[in-house]
Amino acid sequence: MAELIPIYFMGKEYNVPEGSTILSAIEHAGYQLIRGCGCRGGFCGACATIYRIPGDHQIKVGLACQTQIEENMTLAILPSYPANKAFYELESVENPVNALRQAYPEIFKCLGCSACTKICPQDISVMDYIAGAQRGDLEKVAEMSFDCIMCGLCASRCLAQMVPYNIAMMARRLYAKTTLIKPDYVLKRIEEVDQGKYSAEIDKLIGKDIEELRILYADRDIEGI
Amino acid sequence: MPYPTAFQDSLSKLEASREFRKEQIIKRLSEEERTLLIEAFHPDYRPEAMKDVSLGVNMGQKVPLEFASVVESYSRIEPEKINLDSPDFNVDILVIGGGGGGSAAALTAHSQGARVLLTTKLRLGDANTLMAEGGICAPVRPDDDPYKHFLDTLGGGHYTNVPEIVKALVLDCPKIANWLIDLGVMFDFEEDGTLKVNHCGGHSRKRLLSCKDLTGLEIMRVLRDEIRNLEIPYLEFSPAVEIILDSEGLCGGAVLYNMETEEYYVVKANAVILASGGIGRLHVQSFPTTNHYGATADGLVIGYRAGAELIHMDSIQYHPTGVVWPEQLLGQLITEVMRGHGTHLVNVDGERFINELECRDTCASALIRECEDRRKGVVTPTGMEGIWMDTPLVEGVEKHFVGIYQRFKKYDIDISKEPILVFPTQHYQNGGLKITPHGETTIPGLFAAGEVSGGVQGKNRLAGNSLLDIFVFGRRSALKAVQLMNQKRSELTLQHVIDYQKKLEALGIDKSKKSPVLLPDYIRDETKAKKN
Ligand SMILES: Cc1cc2nc3c(=O)[nH]c(=O)nc-3n(C[C@H](O)[C@H](O)[C@H](O)COP(=O)(O)OP(=O)(O)OC[C@H]3O[C@@H](n4cnc5c(N)ncnc54)[C@H](O)[C@@H]3O)c2cc1C
Ligand code: FES
Question: Any idea which ligand is nearest the CA of B428?
Answer without folding.
Answer: 1
